[in-house]
């Protein structure tokens, strides 16, 4: 093979490698962009339930703001249960719940869709607040 032909072969091989690397970078960029927009226009509201009505709940967020979220017929309710006696892999579970299970003081994470100037709940995941030892009533002392 002449020197002229081998130069084109090397150049073609380098071009193919360059092209393959560029295609991998484009695919990687598309995957990252897809993950960033996975929730679309959904909004997450996290905090403690302040007030529950028949058609909405008010959440106090960690930064102290109160956010009202509308409850609609398609809202899914999940009770997040942590069982201490379960194996670590089974310790945390979400169980189906109802709107009537919601109460003030419970911890909540809501996935909502903005509609006009309101938020409509798609999913409400809630759990009971942890009970601290100081919150438990003291046992009466035996009489001596």
What does the secondary structure layout of this molecule look like, with pairings?
Layout: H1 3-36, E1 43-52, E2 56-60, E3 66-70, E4 76-82, E5 92-96, E6 107-115, E7 118-127
Parallel strand pairs: 4-7
Antiparallel strand pairs: 1-2, 1-6, 2-3, 4-5, 6-7
Summarize the structure in words.
By secondary structure, the protein is an alpha+beta fold. It folds into two domains: 1-38; 43-130, Beta Barrel (OB fold (Dihydrolipoamide Acetyltransferase, E2P)), CATH 2.40.50. The chain has one helix at residues 3-36, and strands at residues 43-52, 56-60, 66-70, 76-82, 92-96, 107-115, 118-127. A seven-stranded mixed sheet has the order 3-2-1-6-7-4-5, with no helix packed on it. The N and C termini lie far apart (109 Å). The mean pLDDT is 79.
List its salient traits:
144 residues; alpha+beta; OB fold (Dihydrolipoamide Acetyltransferase, E2P); 2 domains; seven-stranded mixed sheet; 1 helix; 7 strands; 35% strand
Q: What would you say about this model in short?
A:
The chain is α+β, with helices and mostly antiparallel strands and 144 residues long.
Strand order of the largest sheet: 3-2-1-6-7-4-5
Q: How many domain modules?
A: 2
CATH topology grouping of the largest domain: OB fold (Dihydrolipoamide Acetyltransferase, E2P)
| Assembly status | single chain
Radius of gyration: 28 Å
The second-level CATH architecture of the largest domain is Beta Barrel
Instruction: Describe the global form.
Output: elongated
**Overall mean pLDDT score?**
79
Q: What pattern of helices and strands is seen along the backbone?
A: HEEEEEEE
Estimate percent helicity.
10-25%
Strand percent estimate: 35-45%
What is the makeup of the main sheet? Answer: 7 strands, mixed
Q: Ends: how far apart?
A: 109 Å
Number of strands: 7
């Amino acid at each position: 093979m002449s020197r002229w032909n081998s130069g084109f072969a090397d150049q073609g091989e380098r071009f193919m490698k360059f092209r393959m690397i560029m295609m991998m970078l484009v695919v990687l960029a598309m995957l990252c962009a897809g993950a960033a927009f996975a929730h679309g226009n959904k909004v997450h509201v996290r905090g403690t339930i302040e007030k529950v009505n028949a058609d909405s709940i008010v959440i106090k967020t960690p930064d102290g703001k109160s956010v009202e979220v509308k409850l609609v017929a398609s809202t899914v309710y999940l009770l997040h249960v942590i069982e201490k006696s379960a194996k670590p892999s089974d310790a945390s579970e979400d169980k189906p719940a109802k709107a009537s299970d919601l109460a003030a003081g419970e911890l909540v994470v809501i996935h909502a869709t903005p509609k006009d100037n309101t938020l409509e709940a798609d999913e409400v995941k809630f759990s009971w607040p942890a009970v601290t030892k100081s919150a438990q009533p003291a046992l009466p002392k035996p009489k001596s």
